[in-house]
Amino acid sequence: MTKTARFTLRVCAPLAAALLTSTAAYADNWRYAMEEGLTDPQGLYATKFKEEIEANSDHTVQIYPVGTLGESADAMEQAQAGLLQFIDQSPGFTGALIPEAEAFLVPYIQPTDPQVVRKFFKEGVAVNEMFHDIYREQGLELLSVFPEGEMVVTTMEEFRTPADLEGMKIRTMTSPLLLETYTAFGASPIAMPWGELIGGLKTKMVDGQENPAIWIEAYDLDNLTNVMTYTGHGQYTTAVMANAEFYDALSDADKELVQNASQVALDYILDVAVELDATGLAKIQESNPGYTINRLTEEERAPFKERAKAVEAAFVERAGERGAAILEQMKKDLAAAQQ
Ligand code: 6CS
């Protein structure tokens, strides 16, 4: 071996190996799946998160929008298996895996007034302190929880009472509490993943569904139904998580990077979220002036609230003491946010 070759092997090979190692350690590509498109609330959060990570490190974040990795449940399996590092999945789907997450679905517990919503999610003890360890049990590091707007029901026929809902087939997301909710409300609910809803409405397999106004407008659900009804019973909530094993293996600096990026994205989306309902409604009114939009009065809401008590009981039965404690805290957080 020549002197030059020996030098190359002795000095350059370890250097190249060190460089390769440091590249692997400091410039990873993190995969992030979500249930929505880039211009929807989850996409706005994810884009902000990606920008923060990429501006403050050599890492890159690859976002997989709705439809690219299968349905919500498929993406969750991939996140739990560590194939994805980050996932945005809403309690409307997570409830099947984590019963306590259904606290966000119990009717007439969540705020709907935009300013109250912001305070409830930003300062609420339940939202910010009580879910972390519960998600950990499923191998998930919970990073952010945020709202996407008041749940609104779209149907073919008007309804103002539980009796009016009789026989109406309402599509819900797959968390069991949503089926219990619409059964209690008098309807005939059918749980299905997002990918089947538009076809379900077109083929009349279902007569209606619930979602926030911003989503109804974005995916044309108003044009597939005749009436949109504000019942005041819920707020669409979503959550962003990391695979816990991946998160635990990060350096302290990278953990801080992820936490900071989550906080920046959360602060941003909480400001945007305050405007989502108004934006969604205004767009529907402009693009679909003939669409009937009903807002149930307090009097009309009363029988739905009465029936919601059975749903709350079903939640507590499944989510146990921890679930009951979360619900009680949410009620206190709501009262505090309303002041
Ligand atoms: O109804 C659904 O399934 C969807 N709704 C929203 C607001 N986001 C994603 C989710 O899949």
TrEMBL record:
Keywords: Periplasm, Signal
Subcellular location field: Periplasm
Signal peptide span: 1-27
GO terms classed as biological process: transmembrane transport
Stored Pfam families: DctP (PF03480)
Gene Ontology CC annotations of this record: periplasmic space
InterPro entries: DctP_fam, TRAP_DctP_sf
Main localization of the protein described in the UniProt heading: periplasm
NCBIfam families according to UniProt: TRAP_S1
Protein name: TRAP-type C4-dicarboxylate transport system, substrate-binding protein
Provenance organism: Ruegeria faecimaris
